[in-house]
Amino acid sequence: MPGDSININNKATAQHMYDAIVIGSGISGGWAAKELCEHGLKTLVLERGRNVVHLKDYPTAIKNPWDFQHRGQLPAAVTKNNPVVSRCYAYGESTEHFFVKDNDHPYVQEKPFDWIRGYQVGGKSLLWARQTQRWSQYEFEGPARDGFAVDWPIRYEDIAPWYSHVEKFAGISGNKDGVPNLPDGEFLPAWELNCVEKHIQQKIKENYNDRQVIIGRCAHLTKPNEIHLQQGRGQCQARNLCERGCPFGGYFSSNSSTIPWAQKTGNMTLQPDSVVHSIIYDEKKGKASGVRVIDAHTKKVTEYYARIIFVNAACLNTNLVLLNSTSNRFPQGLGNDNGLLGRFVAFHNYRGSISATYDGFTDGYYYGRRPTEAFIPSFRNVFKQQTDFLRGYLSYFSAVRSGWQQGIGEDGIGGDWKNNITEAGGWAVYMGMQGETIPKHENHVRLSKDMKDAWDIPQLITSVGYDDNDVKLMKDFLTQCSEMLEKAGCKNINQQDSNQTPGLDIHEMGGVRMGKDPKTSLLNKWNQLHACQNVFVTDGACMTSVGNQNPSLTFMAITARAANHAVDELKKGNL
Ligand SMILES: Cc1cc2nc3c(=O)[nH]c(=O)nc-3n(C[C@H](O)[C@H](O)[C@H](O)COP(=O)(O)OP(=O)(O)OC[C@H]3O[C@@H](n4cnc5c(N)ncnc54)[C@H](O)[C@@H]3O)c2cc1C
What we know:
Bound molecules: flavin-adenine dinucleotide
Structural class: alpha/beta
Oligomer: single chain
Number of strands: 22
């Protein structure tokens, strides 16, 4: 607990009593709030950052490039003071107010880790790239089949109805492609591949029987349904300025969707500027009774109580809160009987990329700013082990007219520059990877014993790195995908290893993994801590392995599933 000046408001126990507490209001916390409130639970949502109200608090949403002092770029002094967050592609003059600055919330990098965070109501749901691919049975069966991590306690069939539940409400665009390891969902109309992407799609189909090119599925309202209109959201305008907050509600964020929906039930109390310090464990009752909260500004400490607690602070902060929740019963952190809390953190490998050119289709172009790309679902080690590395990668690519890229946003003068921005050049193709990494005991986070943050909470130490498997997997991506582009007639194929720091993928997962056995996992199949069953962890921290798909859709589905189970258990008097 912070300092001696603690002023715990014990007398106010009665007015601080709720049915449920949700820690964090981002993608997963928003879903917990929505589901619990819809079922009539009086729910307190605690958010460490400031409030961000949909539409009202998007100050840059309709600004033009010339309205920004630095035309969207950040001054060198800002990037120099913020080396970590500056490495995130989405951090810029139009979005900086939604990102955590390096010095405000320090952590200890035992191994380099770019921890990208958004501390506000809505969390990173305002900033995400909205790519939403389902997991398949092959991801849930992966650890057991290939002998890493521990067996998932759930299978695809357990979560499939919850994917549907989430997709219908959030609004996901896509095609029903019939790919076994990227199951179809409840889709709004898909975005379209352009002519060069369709050409590459066709050539890959002709040359490979195990690979398929599809348009990425993403959380954009291409054609809103009634449920989206009820949320006050409208059709995506393909502005591709999403990270500023969307004035149309065209993409899914907690702010535009789940949080106002929960608010409408009258059952939610949303409390921003409330830093959760720890979860309180009641030794007599053998369960958690509430949380300790520090006011972000006054630093006053208050306790809030509830029958169930959902921890949705985003993967690493969820680990931090649990590690910091010590008691006589749990001296190493809440639920941490086996000492594995904070262990088996994994992420997505984005190191490899390929650029190329394509001659031809000079009469072809595209309109609007499509918010997704062409995807090649994983084709490595899906049905059986094929290579000397474990697991696989999802590849994504797009083709653009290069003149467009060269001209826009660049300073210039004179005829050449004018030609650049008015005449489309040849086609350029860019390809990237999203590879699965293997959760390992040594990849972990823990609390610093001497370094504290401004709220007197121990800083997190990150100790997460790559291994040989990651390098082999990346090399395979570079070889296989270069070959595919070559077969499609691309030229000037260039391969790159960015060697980017783990964390910059912003898909960190694990530390509080699900499993069947309390000796080797922290959570059961309903995301309850094995040893403290009224605490549910449903953000990325719960992930036993990380798959190759973008993860947030799975966090949402897992959260909705767990919240509905919690309601059932409360009704039965089991919690
Ligand atoms: C630029 C970018 C692009 C991305 N693209 C994609 C994508 O295309 N597809 C995809 O699936 N994912 C993507 N992601 C990742 C995605 O944003 C996260 O997976 C998702 O937001 C995680 O949801 P969450 O609820 O766990 O965390 P968040 O959305 O981060 O919410 C966590 C909330 O908890 C709050 N909090 C933290 N600690 C405390 C505390 N102690 N007390 C109270 N509150 C606390 C935070 O302030 C925050 O509001 C992207 C992320 C970024 C930044």
